[in-house]
Amino acid sequence: MGALTTQSGRSLAALSETEIIQRIVAALSDACPVFPAGPGGDCAVFENQSDQKYRVSTIDSVILGRHFDLACSGAKAGRKLVQRNLSDLAAAGATPSDALLSFIVGADVESDWLEDFAHGAGRAAANVGLKIVGGDICRGTMGTFSATLALQGHSSRILTRHTCQVGDIIFVTGKLGGSIYGHHLDFMARLKEGQWLCAQSTVTACTDLSDGLAKDLPGLIGSRFNARIDLGAVPISEDAQALAKADGKPGLEHALQDGEDYELLFTSSPTQADLIAATFQKNFPKTLLSQIGKVEAGKGEVFSLADNQPIKSGGFSHFD
Amino acid sequence: MGALTTQSGRSLAALSETEIIQRIVAALSDACPVFPAGPGGDCAVFENQSDQKYRVSTIDSVILGRHFDLACSGAKAGRKLVQRNLSDLAAAGATPSDALLSFIVGADVESDWLEDFAHGAGRAAANVGLKIVGGDICRGTMGTFSATLALQGHSSRILTRHTCQVGDIIFVTGKLGGSIYGHHLDFMARLKEGQWLCAQSTVTACTDLSDGLAKDLPGLIGSRFNARIDLGAVPISEDAQALAKADGKPGLEHALQDGEDYELLFTSSPTQADLIAATFQKNFPKTLLSQIGKVEAGKGEVFSLADNQPIKSGGFSHFD
User: Fold this and answer.
1) How far apart, in Å, do the first and last CA atoms of chain A sit?
2) Residue A316: inside a domain, yes or no?
3) Are B134 and A102 an interchain contact pair (Cβ–Cβ within 8 Å)?
4) Number of folded domains in chain B?
5) Across the interface, which of A37, A109, A136 has its CB nearest the CB of B59?
6) 8 Å CB contact between A253 and A153
7) Which residue of chain A is at minimal alpha-carbon distance from B49?
8) A27:B131 CB<8 A
9) Domain end call among B155, B186, B202
């Protein structure tokens, strides 16, 4: 048994991302605590003995050829690394504090481009008061570049997944789909919005959209609930419409299935939903907020309100 | 300007690891605090408002083909990732608390091998009470595997670099050199020893040996001091002797220049050095401790005690 195999049935190509993660978590065994202290949310959550009652942490990478291409400027790629991680903190409603930055780089990576990457990452961090306190650089094979950020934050309350109730109203920020046309490099994590939502006691659960609404919604509600979605209320981005024209798929399908929206998907108790919506829009007049459905008893499935048809996840999965 | 270049003068191949890190730190600008809160030590250090006065963090990776080869078991590679990071915490004298684990894997990575990797990492973590609380997995190019661990710890006092004084005595644990013969996969981080040293107020500075004594010693003492080393007192490992027979270089050169010893290099005030040595050996009878030299005023250079010759660093550097 070696690290690599030529038999595809024994390789990771034969497994879904979910299956791979399940195997890793099982193998980590006693070292791996259960959710929410362990894997399963946007961040890991720790209780503190201080005013900032919770500490949260998350880790995410960007890889050349996967999260950006050869034509992408270093500054945009570096900015994306920071914003991707900040989006996980936004979903928790936390304030970023410090981060570690690790590189694996081929010897043929351009030194000016790498410097530009650090500029972009540094500016995105400084804009939200995040300190990059340390890191590491290792040489990888020629033609490769990856950077990983491990991010810490804190908050007096934390938003997480699997904490909604039957009857809760489902909201989403922004417009969805077509991120590949540019949004995936240009978005700003919804940090202020997440912190505001976290301060509202009637907001019950939250996640950020990274793998597409149809895949992330079951992740938000958990296995004891279903979601019923008004497909007419799902906000479709202009890029999703443009992509629809190019590939012939409906714009709605892009809005449901495309990854890298980095918008917030959250639930609110039904009696306070109108108030949450109105107050949110007052605080964030430039951020579209859409009420798209509600939570029902169930088993982690999503249905269309109009015709009761299941909405399957064909969303982005790293190993499909 | 793109991520990769075919002009070697514009690529990272033209720079040393130190130059690359200096450029990144400069480019991160305001986002990057100065040492010891920022880069330059084994860990980044934060002050807390709790009994555990300090929080520390560090990040490190293992890469297939660089830190282990195709013949290495998953369990050994996973164990190495955890021990490498723990060694940085040992140098600070801190207690590990939680970590995030990130993978970048080609689709041809064997799934059983990856599971074995997680087993090895999980066991090494559980042995020291470290929790792996979250992570991430991304697909990389075929034939590649890397794993990155971001580790947090805490302590009521922290050992760091650049804090020794003129006259301090220099000690090193274990035997040095020849790690490539197996030690680099089989070592245990000197966590207990580091915590004990940290509790002794007369221990003034500490680091772990990852790039070789000749390179790590200037890093420990900093630019205001020199070190004078009794080369006859440098502990040479059996593997360094065996390697010397194979390649014709002196065993001492391997002990000074080889990387991945993962031993502790520390300084103590001269009046208490004998007491530190005796009490250390009583507490850790199986860990060799050698007094190898002393700290003088200077500018970050290392000299031989016997003949006053400079000891240059030809130690391991990732980009040479």
Assistant:
1) 24
2) no
3) no
4) 2
5) A136
6) no
7) A50
8) no
9) B155
Strands B44-47 and B131-139 turn out to be unpaired
pLDDT digits (tens, 9 = 90+) for B209-243: 999 999 999 999 999 999 999 999 999 999 999 99
Q: What ipTM was predicted for this assembly?
A: 0.93
User: What is the pLDDT confidence band of residue A316, given thresholds at 50, 70 and 90?
Assistant: very low
Query: What residues have CB less than 8 Å from A251, skipping those under 6 apart?
Result: A177, A236, A240, A241, A243, A244
pLDDT higher for A40 or A137? A137
Q: Indicate yes or no: CB of B137 within 8 angstroms of CB of A65.
A: no
Considering only alpha carbons, which residue of chain B is nearest residue A100? B59
CATH of the domain at B108: 3.30.1330.10
CA B81, CA B88: separation in Å to the nearest integer?
12
Q: Summarize pLDDT for A48-57 with one digit per residue, the tens.
A: 766 678 999 9
Q: Chain A contacts of B65, Cβ < 8 Å?
A: 141
Does residue B179 share a domain with residue B146? no
Whether the per-residue pLDDT at A291 is higher than 90: the answer is yes
Size of interface A-B (CB pairs under 8 A): 348
Please tell me whether residues B140 and B255 are part of one structural domain: no
Q: Same domain for B147 and B45?
A: yes
Q: Which pLDDT belongs to residue B50?
A: 66
Hey, are the CB atoms on A31 and B121 less than 8 Å from each other? yes
Same domain, yes or no, for B136 and B229?
Answer: no
Question: Which residue range forms the structural domain that includes residue A290?
Answer: 169-304
Percent residues over pLDDT 70 in chain B: 96
Question: Is residue B313 domain-resident?
Answer: no
Locate the chain A residue with the closest alpha carbon to B18.
A137
Can you give the CATH number for the domain in which A196 is found? 3.90.650.10
Mean pLDDT along residues A134-148: 94
Q: Do B66 and A140 touch (CB under 8 A)?
A: yes
Between the alpha carbon of residue B252 and those of residues B142, B214, B233, B304, the distances in Å are 40, 11, 10, 12
Tens digits of residue pLDDT in A150-175: 999 999 899 999 999 999 999 999 99
Residue A151 sits in the same domain as residue A176? no
Q: How far is B247 from chain A (nearest CA, A)?
A: 25
CA-CA-CA-CA dihedral for A290, A183, A158, B59, to nearest 10: 170
pLDDT in tens, B194-210: 999 999 999 999 999 99
CB neighbours (10 Å) of residue B274? Answer: 12
Interface mutation target, options B25, B35, B59, chain A, most CBs of A under 10 Å = B59
Could you give the 3-state DSSP secondary structure of residue B123?
Answer: helix
Whether A270 is in a domain gets the answer yes
Considering chain B, what is the average pLDDT of its residues?
A: 94
Give chain A's mean pLDDT: 94
B39: Cα within 13 Å, side-chain hemisphere: 21
B58–A32 C-beta distance less than 8 A:
no
Give the residue carrying structure tokens 């940090």.
A191
Q: How close does chain B come to A216, measured CA to CA in Å?
A: 16
